[in-house]
């Protein structure tokens, strides 16, 4: 398969459809384990979504993204 970001050939073991399926299955439990969504600061959530969507578009990878600020003090990308 060809990496959509680097345009180089690489071995891929999971299809895009499988990635999406795995993400949907694990989304809620993964959020809950990390403190759940932080809903106190709407401006922060809007800013993170804006930046995240710009990065997603620039990546050239066509996957459904959602950017959420979690209620957790541990740094994480």
Describe this protein's structure:
This protein is mostly helical. It has one domain. The protein is 47% helix and 0% strand. The radius of gyration is 15 Å and the shape is globular. The model has no long low-confidence stretch (mean pLDDT 83).
What structural keywords apply?
77 residues
Number of strands: 0
SSE pattern, N- to C-terminal? HH
Overall pLDDT score: 83
Q: End-to-end span in angstroms? A: 26 Å
The number of domains: 1
Structural class: mainly alpha
Poorly predicted runs: none
Query: What's the assembly state of these chains?
Result: single chain
Number of distinct helices? 2
What summary fits the major beta sheet? none
Structure at a glance:
The chain has two helices and no strands. With 77 residues, it is mostly helical. The mean pLDDT is 83.
Topology:
Layout lengths: L15 H18 L8 H18 L18
């Amino acid at each position: 398969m060809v990496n959509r970001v680097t345009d180089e050939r690489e071995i891929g073991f999971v299809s895009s459809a499988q990635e999406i399926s795995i993400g949907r299955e694990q989304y809620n439990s993964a959020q809950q384990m990390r403190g759940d969504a932080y809903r106190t600061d709407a401006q922060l959530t809007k800013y993170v979504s804006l930046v995240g969507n710009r990065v997603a578009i620039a990546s050239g990878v066509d996957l459904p993204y959602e950017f959420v600020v979690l209620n957790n003090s541990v740094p994480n990308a």
